[in-house]
Amino acid sequence: MKIIFYEQNTDIDAWLRGFARELPDADLRAWEPGDTAPADYAIVWRAPRELFANRPDLKAVFNLGAGVDAILDVERKEPGTLPPNAMLVRLEDTGMAQQMVEYATYTVLRYMRRFDEYEALQREGRWEKLRQHARKDFTVGVLGLGVLGAEVAQGLRRLGVPVRGYSRTPKDIEGVSVYAGRDQLDAFLDGTRVIINLLPHTPDTEGILNARAFGKLARGAYLVNVARGPHLVDADLIDALDSGQLAGAMLDVFHVEPLPKEHPFWRHPRIGVTPHIAAETLREESIVQIAAKIRALARGETISGVVDFKRGY
Ligand code: NAP
Ligand code: GLV
């Protein structure tokens, strides 16, 4: 079988060596512009349109991340970009859930124990004790209960805070109050103290973090966006922070990445910025998972993690 690989800014040789170890019979190559030779499988992250063009033989495209919005966006803008018979397969966990649990736990603890405020007090040289927030009132809501969101919700339960989750279809997750579908979004948001976004970016979820949603949260709530920048209406976040409706935000993803130097988020005293590192793609785990799926497909078996083009994730 022939496999092409594309990712910018990575150690391509290390990826190819890993795949060669797992798939010794495969003919592997790094894709470069102009390469139109046949391929059965493509393993890519943010690949140019040209990579997919005129490849009727492609059986599957493996996305080197959980979110497939970039690939689907190219297809939406230029229908027919993806070969008609190729399935699109996303990474399932591969060590990202643990990283997301860490990011969410750190952020919730930072707000609940008021470490963000102690940091501000230290900068002013002030010795002041703040009243602790009551754990039972510190409801945390996780938007998206998929591979990553479900793990984050479970992980946060261990902090002893009430945990809610929101998904498209109903779920049964021990100790988590689940709200499903747009009809239940307001009830999910109502009184929530920290909201953590782990939804995929689709036409349905774009702009979901907006003034209306912020208005439903508890006064002085916090926002954690670790999914995609276009979920958030940036101006609504600034307004909500200025009015006191939100007390702070931790953002890992942005409309434009890298976040432009002049963007007000960089300098806002109540916004934390990280450079899209909440959960990174881990090479070894990803190679093992993708190679196992390629072997399964070659045996004619079905695999998990196949993207439903209509749902958009
Ligand atoms: P996933 O397994 O596909 O889960 C998506 C969840 O969102 C599911 O629970 C789904 O509901 C729910 N959902 C989708 N559309 C919805 C809608 N319109 N209304 C309500 N719920 C909806 O995805 P994942 O692996 O957990 O990853 C989630 C996202 O995290 C990715 O798409 C990516 O954007 C982001 N991410 C970011 C980083 C980072 O470093 N910042 C790293 C990895 C991933 P159902 O369960 O009912 O289908
Ligand atoms: C990273 O953002 C991913 O989608 O895996």
UniProtKB/TrEMBL annotation:
Domain D-isomer specific 2-hydroxyacid dehydrogenase NAD-binding, chain residue ranges per copy: 108-278
Origin superkingdom: Bacteria
Coiled coil residues, start to end: none
Keywords in alphabetical order: NAD, Oxidoreductase
Pfam families: 2-Hacid_dh_C
UniProt KW NAD keyword: yes
One GO molecular-function entry: oxidoreductase activity, acting on the CH-OH group of donors, NAD or NADP as acceptor
UniProt name for this protein: Glyoxylate reductase
Lineage of origin: Bacteria, Pseudomonadati, Pseudomonadota, Betaproteobacteria, Burkholderiales
